[in-house]
Backbone:
């Protein structure tokens, strides 16, 4: 009867443990490495079908204007978006007021807030608007007009390969000489599925 070499020198009940017997921890360690190798193999197989990917978009919009910006999904794969994030700022060369968007203050007068951009997202491939109108950028993106990055907004949506994402950016700034800059980032997975 063949015996496993690992257990060939194991003692009978009541006999002392020989010094050259592999310990149980070594057996456990072997199992751990086997599990790790299986996990890495699985990860490689999964990444052949999908992997993390980013679609960035940046631009500038002048006050009192709305501009369309297009993100093109690459032809070789679909894009499963998971989160959206972004930031914005403006530069007032004239320095006539400390920030950019007029709002009523508690005294009933007009104050200024350093905000102004709003966005609307459309899946052009399916002709599907993903909001009922324009959303203030700071309500959807982080850090928005601020400096402190928060958890990105969950934005789960599957964009098909070779389609277009249209992002309309509207600047509510009343001074047409002031442009707002923005950076938007879609975070998700490239998904390789049979066509």
Residues:
């Amino acid at each position: 009867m063949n015996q496993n070499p690992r257990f060939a020198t194991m003692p009978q009940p009541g006999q002392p443990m020989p010094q050259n017997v592999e310990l149980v921890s070594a057996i456990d360690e072997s199992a751990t490495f086997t599990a790790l190798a299986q996990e890495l193999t699985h990860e490689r197989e999964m990444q052949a079908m999908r992997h993390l990917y980013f679609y960035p978009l940046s631009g500038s919009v002048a006050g009192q204007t709305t501009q369309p910006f297009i993100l093109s999904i690459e032809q070789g794969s679909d894009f499963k978006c998971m989160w959206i994030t972004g930031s914005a700022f403006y530069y007032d060369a004239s320095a006539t007021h400390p920030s950019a968007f007029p709002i009523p203050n508690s005294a009933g007068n007009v104050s200024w807030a350093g905000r102004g951009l709003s966005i609307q997202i459309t899946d052009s491939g399916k002709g599907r608007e993903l909001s009922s109108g324009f959303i203030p950028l700071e309500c959807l993106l982080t850090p928005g007009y601020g400096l402190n990055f928060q958890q990105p907004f969950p934005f789960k949506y599957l964009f098909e390969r070779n389609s277009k994402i249209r992002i309309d950016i509207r600047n509510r700034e009343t001074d047409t000489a002031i442009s707002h800059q923005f950076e938007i980032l879609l975070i998700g997975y490239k998904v390789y599925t049979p066509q």
In short: The CA atoms of residues 92 and 178 lie 6 Å apart. The two ends are 55 Å apart (CA to CA). The longest helix spans residues 24-47.
